[in-house]
Amino acid sequence: MTSVAYCAVIPTPNLLLPGLPHVPTETNFLDFHCAHSPQWKDTRLFDIGDCFGTFHMMLDAEGVEPFAREVRKEFKTRKARSNLPPGDAVLTPRKYVVGTCTLAILMRVEVRPEDFPAVDGRSTITNDVSSFKSIAHAASLIYDLCGKPLKSPGWASLGERNGMAVAFWGTGSTIDRHYGNLRPVIALPSLPPADGLQETA
Q1: Which DSSP category does 134 fall into?
Q2: 69 falls in which pLDDT band (50, 70, 90)?
Q3: 73 near 131, Cβ under 8 Å?
Q4: C-alpha span between 6 and 138 (Å, rounded)
Q5: Which residues contact residue 130 at a Cβ distance below 8 angstroms, ignoring those fewer than 6 apart?
């Protein structure tokens, strides 16, 4: 079973990504967890600095302009029905890899409850509405509250119906191998500071 070092339902802070204007998340509270279990990372190799690059890379890979208006989208499992034309919904799971860190977007119905314990129990929702900007802000919450102070991966729930999860975990970790059928949307080696993805003070 995956151990969780920190678990809380907390007010969503006004976190800013560098170069990205604030976009409120769709819920007032996030189910938020820092995971210290070795299943979530390889302690010898995991570099939290790589995680900072993943949510910027996600926005680039999905064609999201930093200062464009927020675009709400339907996120769904591959088997879920949709009222949208084929190709308009965003299929999950998705993952983005930079070196030792993986950012994943999943529907909570797709994950094992022991890996993603939630205060509201296991979700049965197969589609939900969010935006890549809201996902990036949830990722920044994990990075600011788990990554920087604790050097830890973690995850948060989101979506208008709280049916989605965004997670950081170590590339090649036990969790990563369990969800190994997720083909990365994009994967890059660790990026040096010269590539402009380093955190600014």
Answers
A1: H
A2: confident
A3: yes
A4: 16
A5: 26, 72, 73, 75, 158, 159, 160, 164
